[in-house]
Design goal:
Blueprint: H1 2-19, E1 23-28, H2 34-43, E2 49-54, E3 60-65, H3 72-81, H4 93-97
Antiparallel strand pairs: 1-3, 2-3
Helix pairs in contact: 2-3
Length: 114
């Protein structure tokens, strides 16, 4: 009886530990300024994302997320939905063109990508 109780507690603990597992990824997100940084990071304020930080200088986004709650593809979609291109997803032209002028990264040759 006690052995089965201990085994049950151990199995439940392992199941809980697996559910809370997170992954850390980095990828490029295109933008120019602090307004972009705020918009990009706010787009990642989603269930399953533990941390999201975008570096203005390197254009590198660092995200810690729980893959059982959100997919990496969905994270890219959230960022593109607010007007910023990522390595995997391009923002719709209409959304991009509505960004403030300082945020229009496609027109800036230093931040342009294909």
């Amino acid at each position: 009886m006690i052995l089965s109780l201990i085994a049950s507690l151990f199995l439940n603990y392992n199941a809980f530990a697996q559910k809370s597992k997170t992954e850390k990824v980095t990828f490029k997100v295109f933008g120019n300024c602090t307004q972009c940084k705020e918009r990009i990071e706010l787009a990642c304020d989603q269930k399953g994302i533990k941390m999201a930080e975008w570096n203005i200088d390197t254009k590198v986004m660092t995200v810690v997320y729980n893959p059982s709650k959100i997919t990496l593809e969905k994270i890219h979609e959230y960022i593109a939905a607010v007007g910023h291109d990522t390595e995997l997803k391009k923002a719709e032209d209409k959304v991009y063109k509505d960004l403030p002028g300082c945020c229009l990264f496609r027109e800036n040759p230093n931040t342009h990508h294909d």
